[in-house]
Amino acid sequence: MLLLTIFITGIEAFAQDALIDKTAYIKFHSDKGGIYAENYSVISKLDRSSGELIFSVAIQSFEFKNALMQRDFNKANVMNSAEYPKAKFVGKITNIEAVDFTKAGSYPVMVSGVLTIKGISNQVETPGSIIIEQGHIKAIATFSLDRFEYGIKGKTKSISQLLDIRVEAEYE
Amino acid sequence: MNRYRYIIISIFSCMLLGAGIAYNVWNMPHLDVQAAHVFEQLNVSDFIRFALKDKKAFNQKYLESNGESKVIIISGKLQSVDYTKKGNPVLYLSDDHQPVLIQCILLNHEQVDTAALTGKYLKIKGIVRSGAEYDEDLDMYEDAILEKCRIIKD
């Protein structure tokens, strides 16, 4: 009975290390043209013990202010969202031991992993923050993405080659 | 003289027409999901079963290349309610026979009476953004996503 209790407690502790946010947020912004789009239905997973960090993004959930831009963004020569409906980041917080999840504060972290868009994968490394406040765990990162590395075409005259990406997740 | 005037007026009219068309295309409205034609009406179970069975066929059937994908009416049991970071309610519809949920993000910022609606069967109209699938990296099923949703009252 004691062994069973230890086993169950162990499973629960393991399960609680993996935190999920099904309404994480991503915004990308192009300096040229001041174009931006936002996505409020990103799935994210953070494992507090291993530092594993995953984001899964439904491409068609990106919303632009301008409807024509949104249509163009989804088309085959840009994101090809009907064929590649998801983008994914699978990586790790490399200094997860620097975060004290029991103590409120903002902890600078380094994130490293593989970002896959349109079936093309590239290594990404970026600084970010883990913010602990009132029992909530927030993860925030901003980085630049070279769209040409992922075969994202589109007019260079009106959209920057480097896009600014902001990612926010809040785990409970 | 009259001939030149005719040419200038014609050129000016064409430019004006072109500018008008360009203005209208540039400012075209987003798809009005709630006024859009309903492609299909089905329950959570059938929708999820199809998505899990054949991802490619699901994408071909429901996702459009310009992002204005199929508008459907889905019916299922409300399991829980959450809110996006923008404040829109997210209704999770479930089915007893499937391990996955459908995430329906409501169009408007509104308070949902969670206590009154949880466990009730709802009909929701919305646009398909992605299907459900098992993701090995996440080690979990990803919910199907419907957006710009509204609860349909019988």
Describe the structure.
The complex is a heterodimer of chains A (172) and B (154). Chain A contains 2 helices and 9 strands. Chain A has 172 residues and is mainly beta. Chain A has an 8-stranded antiparallel β-barrel with strand order 1-2-3-5-6-7-8-9. The two termini of chain A are 31 Å apart. Chain B is of the alpha+beta class. In chain B, the strands form 2 sheets. Chain B has a 5-stranded mixed beta barrel. In chain B, strands 6-7 form a two-stranded antiparallel ribbon. In chain B, a hairpin with a 5-residue loop joins β2 and β3 (89-94). The longest helix of chain B has 25 residues, at 2-26. The termini of chain B are far apart. The A-B interface holds A 18, 20, 22-23, 25, 38, 40-41, 43, 45, 54, 56, 58, 60-61, 66-68, 70-71, 73-76, 80-83, 85-86, 88, 90, 168, 170 and B 25-31, 59-60, 63-69, 82-86, 88, 90, 103, 105, 129-131, 135, 137-140, 142-143, 145, 147.
Descriptors:
A: 172 residues, mainly beta, 8-stranded antiparallel beta barrel, 9 strands, elongated, B: 154 residues, alpha+beta, OB fold (Dihydrolipoamide Acetyltransferase, E2P), 2 domains, 5-stranded mixed barrel, two-stranded antiparallel sheet, 8 strands, 31% helix
